[in-house]
Structures are given as structure tokens and as C-alpha cells.
Amino acid sequence: MAAPVRLALQGPIARVTLSHPAGIDAISRAMWRELREIFVQIQGAPDLRCVIVGGENGGFCAGGDIAEYPQFRFHPETLRRFHEEEVWGGLAAMLACEVPMVAELAGACMGAGLEIACCCDLRIAGVSTRFGAPIGRLGFPLAPREAQLLAAVAGEATLRELLLEGGQLDAREMKARGFVQRVVPNEDLLGEVRATAERVAQLAPQAARMNKRTLRRMAGRAAQAPLPEDFMARAYDYATSAEHREGISAFLEKRSPRF
Amino acid sequence: MAAPVRLALQGPIARVTLSHPAGIDAISRAMWRELREIFVQIQGAPDLRCVIVGGENGGFCAGGDIAEYPQFRFHPETLRRFHEEEVWGGLAAMLACEVPMVAELAGACMGAGLEIACCCDLRIAGVSTRFGAPIGRLGFPLAPREAQLLAAVAGEATLRELLLEGGQLDAREMKARGFVQRVVPNEDLLGEVRATAERVAQLAPQAARMNKRTLRRMAGRAAQAPLPEDFMARAYDYATSAEHREGISAFLEKRSPRF
Amino acid sequence: MAAPVRLALQGPIARVTLSHPAGIDAISRAMWRELREIFVQIQGAPDLRCVIVGGENGGFCAGGDIAEYPQFRFHPETLRRFHEEEVWGGLAAMLACEVPMVAELAGACMGAGLEIACCCDLRIAGVSTRFGAPIGRLGFPLAPREAQLLAAVAGEATLRELLLEGGQLDAREMKARGFVQRVVPNEDLLGEVRATAERVAQLAPQAARMNKRTLRRMAGRAAQAPLPEDFMARAYDYATSAEHREGISAFLEKRSPRF
């Protein structure tokens, strides 16, 4: 079986491919843990100059693997471990990695996919890529650190719209909102991302890492600022709520939720 | 006489209508106080899922009620009470309210109207709506908390332009700048806002409130961060200045100010 | 010989012209020092109401004067003094100046030019003006305070793209990203900037200064927030690196760098 997150090297350019074993473009708990290990490894590789982060089968990442949710979402402690250790472990390793990263955004970039894209330095999308965070339909809110990351990178107005209305925005709209830096025809996406990575790899590599370190020391205040402890202590109390159970049950039973 | 701010309920959706008794689209001191009470009431209503905030007679809110200004603006203490208690009382109640809010932006959205729109989660505008903050013509600066809110939501560059040049921007431009999320033909505005509120009301209501709470705990650092005390202590010293008096006198006398 | 930075007054409007003695549109160390003095002088002039900041010969500022770099860049202490005293001295004087400023962006607005534009309140560009920060080709990173200023004003996503990919963006793109407020045909640039300055100069001058003071007390947290001391202590250690020397040598020898 292929690894769910694959690291491939081609000279100074690496490609990290999100590849769910079931062939869907979701991210599982095992994939979050592998994402963390791979980015720790990338950060420790002195000759790497650029990382492309992409999906497979025409999609980037459409969100969490909902089939796994009943295992852990309905207990505050297992829910906390999922968000604070597995998800944030992966995202924090990406944010700590000083090698420049280019997100190759095809198909769907939703929920967890949006969060992974936020950790990249450049975001390039195919014209028909769709963006969203429709967890209001699944009956649960964003985890605080993830909300803070999304607000800092995607902008608070866009985040409020996506979360509270539950809709999708297309690539041109996400370009207009400053989240995506470039939109290209779908068939040009891989070529444009590769050409961008090559331009990045030609510039001074230590200067690039220093720039990312500087931006992290500052960005820390917005994207990774500490959240109030009293607030964090209660952030996962909703695990046992009827609304949460109904949202996920409805999805798995392929019916509309009744909130 | 109709109440100057009206709350109407239709199932899980409320509408707050700004309605100046004189039929103008300005906001009076009494309206700020009512705005506060209504949003405290909304926050305490467990079954509400979405609030539409709009004006009447085709306008949202063109700013403060300048006819009232000579009563209180020329003394530092009454001016402070106006900004810190009446205006900020209303805005703070909106910011503390966890029910999702959609601003229905028609006609003019200027000064105080811009501030009220900043407290909403989604901003939808008719194509001919105009935006501005032309108080430089009235001879006074933004109150610090209001400036901070506007800078956080409308963006510092847009705020500097509107304040320092005194011009207006149209709905498409405010969309391009990320303040407005959607622009529709004027005749479609009410329908689009209502449809948006219905989409919001279909999603998990507790998750929506938790998302707003999370964003407030973070946004607090930008939109509601504490300002330096020494600075706040002197923020209304300008009340007695000749420039301030000239700006307001000229407006009320329908002549150009001489600064 | 003409002064490298000239201050010209025309009633309440001043023009600061960046004018490199060699007729190139770069900024030298002497010019940074003069920029500081001129903005201290402007801040102390009670009758000034607006400052236009522009270049000469059709360009705004294409960056630092690279011919000077071998004199001071390869020793941590002289490099620190350059960035922390000369460059930041000029930028800090601009940021501390409460007179409204309009940037007249023609030709190239790169590196140091981008930083100077960030200190202005309004940015108006000719349609063919180009923007960038291609120092990755010169083998060095942004100085921390300058990175923080650029991230706050130009946006972190745009800064990452310009720094890490080394490309250029045109005026319309920088308008779409919210950095430039207005783009006009090249031949209309001077007229539009002058008309804007006249609009600014007609509004209440003390209110404008108070607005800028308020925004600075807040913006301080983002654009001028203190950086961690341990980080600043090591920020210029790269001065002696082979990569740094190679980037600058290659430029001066008119060859491609080998990183």
C-alpha cells in the first residue's frame, strides 16, 4: 500500500503528495501524523530549496476523513487530542519549516485543505478549484488554533462568510480576496507550480529561510498567538452535544441534518 | 411614533431596522442607546440564528445626526461620553453578540454606518451603495476605538484614504478591497440578504456562536485591543478647538468650512 | 550639485523628491539620512497639510544603491548600523510624521522603494509601474523591522511571493492586492497625485494629524511592534556568509549568482 503522505525529491525541490489510501481526497488521522514527520524531515534537509504540496487524482484536499469521526469526536478528551496533537501537530510542523512551500490547489480545497494551504508561502490554483469550510453542516465549530490560522491567512471576513454561510468560493474569488496568488487554466496548474518552484530554488536559499524565520517571529502574533487558557480549557466541551452528533450522523447517513 | 431602532422577528431570523424618526438615514444618540439594548436582547435569545441589519427608505446609515452635535461635541466630557458610552456601547453590544449578522447595505454607508457594518459578519451591498467617512470636513478625527475597529475590518489603507482624502468609494471598489463580500443589483439586495440569512439559519446554531466567540477572543487583539491609557486620556481634548467648531458650524450653516 | 533628497514647498503642500546624484533611481546611504532629516522638519512645520513623495526622471525608487554595498554589508556591525540606523532612521521618521503623505509611484517601486511607499498614507501608481523585492538574487534577507513594516502594509502573502519567488507585480495587481489605492495612465499620474494632495489639504488639518496619531498607536502593534531581542541580536550574523558575498559580487560583476 502506498504511504498516505508521500515525499518525493527531485534535486533541490521536494513534492509532498497527500494520498488517502481509499482514493478519496480527504485527510485521515494517520495522514496528519505523517504530514508532521515529513515536514520535520524537510526542515532538517539542508539542500532542499522548495517544497510543492499537492494532492492526487485532481484534488488537493476536501477536508477531514469523516468516516473516522465517530471514533473520537464525541468525547472531549479524544477530540482535543485530535485537534491539538494530530491536526495542529501537522500544521505546526509546516509553519515551523523554513523551506519555501508552494501549494498546488486543484479540485477541492476545503476545511483541513484550506488549513494546509494556509501554511504554504505561495498558493496557485486551477481555475475550477473550489474553496470552503462547511463544518456548520457537520454540527461543529473550528478548533481555536485552526480558526486563528485561517483568520490570519485567509482573512477574517472570508472566514466568517465560509463558516457561517457554509458556501463555496471559486479560485478567481479567492484570488480577489488575496488568498490565492495566481489562477491558471487547470491543465497548466502542474507546470506553473513546477516553474514557480524552480524560480524559488534559484534564489539564495539561506536568505529565503531567514525571511521565513523573520515572518514567523512576527506572524506568531497573529497566526500562532497564544489563546486565552480559560477559553482553551472549554474549547472541546461541545464534543458531547446533540448538535455535534446530529451533524455527523446525518452526513454518514446521507441525509440532511436537523439542527 | 415608530421606535428609532426596530427589532422584528420571523422565526429564527431577526431584522434590526435603523429608522431615524425624522426620516433621514442618520443615527441619533437615542438610536445608539436602543441599538445596544436590542443587541443585548438578541444575544440573550437562544432561538435566534441570524440577524439582518438594515436601514429604511433605501439607505443603510449615512452617519451621525449632525443636528444634535452642538449639544455635546464642544465639551471634552460630554464628547467622551458620547463616543465611549453611547456609540461604543452600541458597537460593543454588536461585537459581543454571537448570533450571525448580515448587513444589508443600500444607499449610503458612511461614518457611523461603516462602523455598524464592521460589526456584522457578512456585508452585502447594492451596486450603487456609497461608502465613506468624511469627518475631516466636519473638523474632527475618529474616536480611537472606532478607528481601531474600522482599521481591523475595513483595512488600514482604505481607512486612511477615506479619512484623509474625504472621498467616497462605491460598492464594487469596497468589494475589491474585501470589505463587502457580495455586490448585487439594487433591486436584488433584499432578496439576496434574506436568502443568505436563510442559509445561515440552516447551519448548526451553537457551532456558529462558538465560531464567533473564538474569532472575538482573537479579534480582540486587533479590533478591540486596549488602547494606551495616556493616549485615551487626551483623546477628546480637541472638543474645544476652533477647527472642530468651524467644521460643524459650517455644515449646519450649509457653507464650506475654512480650516 | 542638487541635494539627493529635495524638499519643495507650495503653500500647504510639500513635495519630497528622491533624486540620486548619479541620475539613477536608487537610494543611497546619504539619501536615507537626508530623508530622516526632511521628515523631522516636515513634522515640525505646523502649516503643512500634505506631502507628496516621488522620484525623478520617471521612477520612484528601484531599491538601495548596490554600488555602495561592498563598503559595509560584509561586517555584522556595519550592516546592522545601515539597517537599524540609516534605513530605519528614515522610515521611522516617515512613520512618526503626522502630516498626510501621498506616494507618487512611477516606474520602479522595488525594495527600499516599497518600504518608503509603505510609510505613505495613500499610494497612487501609473499603470506601468512595477513592484518587487528581488533581494533573494542579491543573497540576503529582509531586515526584521523592514519585513514587519512590509508585511503589515503590503500584506504577508504578497511579501512572501515577492521575496521567495523574486518576481515583479504590476500596478493593477498591486491595486487588486490593496497596496495601491488608485492606478492611472502614466501621463495622468502627477495630476492625480496633485489633485489628491489638494483634496487632503482642504480638510481639517489637526483632525488629520490626530487620525494618523491614533492609527500609529494601534499600527504600532503590527508595523512597528518590538521584535524579540534574541532574534534581533543575531539578525545580521549572515553578513559574512558566502551566499551574501556571492549575490552582491555577481550583481556588481553583471553575472548570474551561483547559490
Describe this structure in words.
The structure is a homotrimer of 259-residue chains. Chain A is an alpha/beta fold and 259 residues long. Chain A has a single domain, classed as 2-enoyl-CoA Hydratase, Chain A, domain 1, CATH 3.90.226.10. Chain A is built from eleven helices and nine strands. Chain A has helices spanning 29-43, 69-72, 76-96, 112-118, 144-154, 156-165, 171-176, 189-202, 205-219, 229-233, 242-252; strands spanning 5-10, 13-18, 50-54, 101-105, 108-110, 122-126, 130-132, 168-170, 182-184. The first copy, chain A, has a six-stranded mixed sheet, sandwiched between helices. In chain A, strands 5-7-8 form a three-stranded mixed sheet. In chain A, strand 2, helix 1 and strand 3 (50-54) form a beta-alpha-beta unit. In chain A, helix 1 (29-43) packs parallel to helix 3 (76-96) and helix 5 crosses helix 6 (156-165). The longest helix of chain A has 21 residues, at 76-96. The first copy, chain A, is globular, with a radius of gyration of 18 Å. Chain A starts with a strand and ends in a 7-residue tail after the last helix. The A-B interface holds A 135-142, 144, 147-148, 151, 155-161, 163-167, 176-178, 221, 225, 227-228, 231, 235, 238, 241, 243-244, 246-247, 257, 259 and B 100, 121-123, 153, 175-176, 178-179, 181, 196, 199-200, 202-208, 210-215, 217-219, 221.
- What is Rg of chain A? 18 Å
CATH architecture of chain A: Alpha-Beta Complex
* Mass-distribution shape of chain A: globular
The count of β-strands of chain A is 9
Q: Would you state the CATH class of chain A?
A: Alpha Beta
Note the run of SSEs of chain A as H and E: EEHEHHEEHEEHHEHEHHHH
Task: State the oligomer.
Answer: homotrimer
Largest interface: A-B, 41 and 30 residues
Structural class of chain A: alpha/beta
The average pLDDT score of chain A comes to: 95
Distance between the termini of chain A: 40 Å
Structurally, the number of domains of chain A stands at 1
Question: What's the name of the CATH homologous superfamily of chain A?
Answer: 2-enoyl-CoA Hydratase, Chain A, domain 1
Strand order of the largest sheet of chain A: 1-2-3-4-6-9
CATH topology type of chain A: 2-enoyl-CoA Hydratase, Chain A, domain 1
**Fraction of residues of chain A in helices?**
40-55%
Question: Which stretches of chain A are poorly predicted, pLDDT < 50 over at least 5 residues?
Answer: none
Counting DSSP H or I runs of 4 or more residues, the number of helices of chain A is 11
Strand content of chain A: 15-25%
Q: Tell me the major beta sheet of chain A.
A: 6 strands, mixed
